[in-house]
Amino acid sequence: MKIQIMALAALMLAGCGTVQTVVRSDEAAAKSLKEQKSYCGAIPRIYSGVTYDFCYLNAPLEKGRDSQTYTNAPAFVLIDVVISGALDTLLLPYTIYRQQADGSIILN
């Protein structure tokens, strides 16, 4: 039971980058980053989870929020970068094929 809870927690944490770009549709990933107003124009499918996380970090600050105000969001995204990197490595054969067949995920 304890192992299952830990595995579920890890999968939920990894859900941000890799699951957003590999499992969900291209439109869902693009919509999510558009809502964050990310400056990224496209996400390559190879290591797309890591790229998604960096695009998420590359979004402008919310209106009214001071750049000196600390939040936990960057820490969680950086943890997800490590997990997404591992999952993206496991999914390389699939993502290389998808990159060749479909190209990058266009955001703009």
From TrEMBL:
InterPro entries: DUF1375. It comes from the Bacteria. Residues 1-21 form the signal peptide. Keywords: Lipoprotein, Signal. This is YceK/YidQ family lipoprotein. It comes from Pseudomonas prosekii.
